[in-house]
Specification:
The chain is mainly alpha-helical. The protein has one domain. Helices cover 60% and strands 7% of the residues. It has a two-stranded antiparallel sheet with strand order 1-4. Strand 2 and strand 3 form a beta hairpin. The longest helix is centred in the middle third of the chain and has 25 residues. It is globular and about 45 Å long.
């Protein structure tokens, strides 16, 4: 299934769309978020991000199946704790962005504003709110128009944020944000799967086995931190549920594409997921448990 970095980044950056607001009681001690003993390279992080199924992609698939919108799949931003660690805030920031992707796909702009407001507090508390044009992104996101401009602004904002987190020794927060995006997207897909049997949706869920391995590779870089170790333990439990999922690949016909004014030949391939209903149910159950634990709901 095709992956799209731009769509992921757009989903992540939808959340910083509400005008500048005070972060109220959300505070961060920057000394508690310094990165681990090794640094993840930008190239490695970008490779992994490109392979993450974006919440927009998940929501688009759900929408294409004519599955009705339901707020029951989403976290309640009103439950956002005002007394939490920077690790939890970074994770929640990513997770709520996935919910925003779902809201946007169904054009629920009224509900989206509540999410934007809550996550804007997280961005300010993490001291990255200065990298976003809040008013412009809010206008574009809530109007549902000019998505190309929204994507352009979002990508630049994300890059600036990521650079700043790395420069200030907080690449672990960037990793947790991406982890939150992925888990919330998986939770959304699995919750829909409990009520709608669909092979394409089941296949998307199965493919996340590969992405989970990449996420654990990143998180293990910070395993000496006891807080992140808790995330690692929980995500290893999800990994165990995926043990029986089998993924094979079929090589397709080569095709030509144009890039930078030149024709290039690329090799296509199709993935095939084999997963029993029992394994799917295990994934659904552990995903719900882990997601709810870290969203404090």
């Amino acid at each position: 299934m095709a992956r799209n970095l731009s769509l992921l980044i757009t989903a992540v950056l939808f959340l910083w769309s509400c005008g500048q607001r005070p972060s109220e009681n959300l505070e961060v001690d920057l000394e508690d978020v310094q990165a681990g003993e090794l640094q993840i390279s930008s190239e490695t992080m970008n490779d992994i991000i490109q392979n993450i199924a974006s919440p927009i992609e998940v929501a688009a698939l759900i929408n294409s199946l004519n599955i009705p919108f339901s707020m029951s799949y989403l976290a309640n931003p009103e439950n956002l704790s005002t007394s939490t660690t920077s690790f939890e805030m970074a994770y929640s920031l990513g997770a709520l962005s996935a919910d925003l992707g779902y809201l946007n796909m169904y054009e629920k702009t009224g509900s989206a504003v509540n999410y934007l407001s809550s996550i804007n507090k997280l961005a300010d508390a993490l001291q990255i709110g200065q990298f976003f044009d809040f008013n412009t992104i809010k206008r574009l996101a809530t109007s549902g128009s000019n998505l190309d401009s929204l994507m352009f602004i979002s990508v630049n904002s994300f890059n600036n944020m990521d650079d700043y987190l790395r420069e200030t020794g907080r690449s672990n927060l960037s990793a947790l944000m991406i982890t939150g995006v992925w888990m919330e997207g998986l939770y959304l897909a699995t919750q829909v799967a409990t009520q709608n049997s669909n092979e394409e949706l089941k296949s998307m869920i199965g493919e996340q086995k590969l992405i989970l391995n990449d996420l654990l590779l990143i998180l293990n870089n910070y395993r000496n931190d006891e807080v992140i170790q808790k995330y690692i333990d929980d995500f290893n439990a999800v990994k165990e549920a995926y043990d029986e999922v089998k993924i094979t690949y079929e090589v397709g016909e080569p095709r030509t594409i144009e890039k930078d004014g030149m024709l290039m030949v690329v090799q296509s391939e199709t993935s095939h997921v084999t997963m029993s209903d029992e394994t799917l149910q295990k994934i659904i159950d552990v995903t719900k448990e882990v997601r709810n634990r870290h969203m404090n709901i």
